[in-house]
Amino acid sequence: MNWLKKIFTHKQDSVRSEASETDSFTEKSGKDFQAITPNKGGEDRQIRVFISSTFRDMQAERDVLVKKVFPQLRKLCEERAVAWTEVDLRWGITEKESSEGQVLPLCLAEIERCRPYFIGLLGERYGWVQEPDTISKDLLESQPWLTEYLQKSVTELEIIHGVLQSPKMRDRSLFYFRDPGYLKKLPADADPNDFQSESGEASQKLTELKNNIRAEYTAGKLDYPPRENYPDPNALGDLVLADFTSLIEKLYPESETPDPIDQEATRHDAYGQSRRLGFVGREELLDNMDKHAATPGAKPLVLTGESGCGKSALLAEWA
Fold this sequence. Notes:
Layout: H1 2-8, H2 12-16, E1 46-52, H3 59-79, E2 83-87, H4 95-99, H5 103-114, E3 117-122, H6 137-142, H7 154-164, E4 173-178, H8 200-218, E5 227-230, H9 233-251, H10 260-276, H11 283-294, H12 311-318
Parallel strand pairs: 1-2, 1-3, 3-4, 4-5
């Protein structure tokens, strides 16, 4: 029965945290990843990384990452019994959500779910600035820090919220700055206007943002310095592949890959977490299940319901 116990033993700490928070991730130019603590087999084994950038000028970079780099990292993770997920909101926001002012809250919510993994790509565009009067009062109440940054682009707000305001992000946040010279060698079918700064003010804001990221590293608030002046999308892909391969090797060394039984237990935990993300209410059902479990000699309890009504979510929350 030990194998059943392994599979169904609930690990509360792993359920409460979507991403493990170990100590330092650094680049070879400074330190060398040695401060990272490897994850043991019983801990949460997943990497969920948020990709932040302006959209129009970073399509090629995102394509290289999604089509070439992330599949390789996913394969490496699978070999280590780690779940890999990237969040590319280029495809995740509908026109309806955009028109209803849901872009910013969706981005901030996904960043929360991806902590502590973050990739920031910056070229010469500053990005779209949402009109302050279109930001909902509910969002401002839940994220009061936004009131200080109402004239910032959504991309900068992602970086502020995702990294600059969060010390826990210091060792898993990677920034890549594209070489401005890329503008002189754009593909023939590219529109140069998509790659240039929107205005003099936007250019100044972007310079300040890049300097702030550099300053965070210099001050020791980021463990990983920004990669400066990558020449093209393929070169970016090589950098991201190398950086995340090193990170995975340190966090999830091959020697620490859990046995198949522990892997099954981890998959149960991960599935339970995914079911609980949107769980609300049902207190009466939860209380009834508590009472039944506490009743000596109680008969087995069967939970029934139509497909999709939330049986798995209820059981995951109860566990």
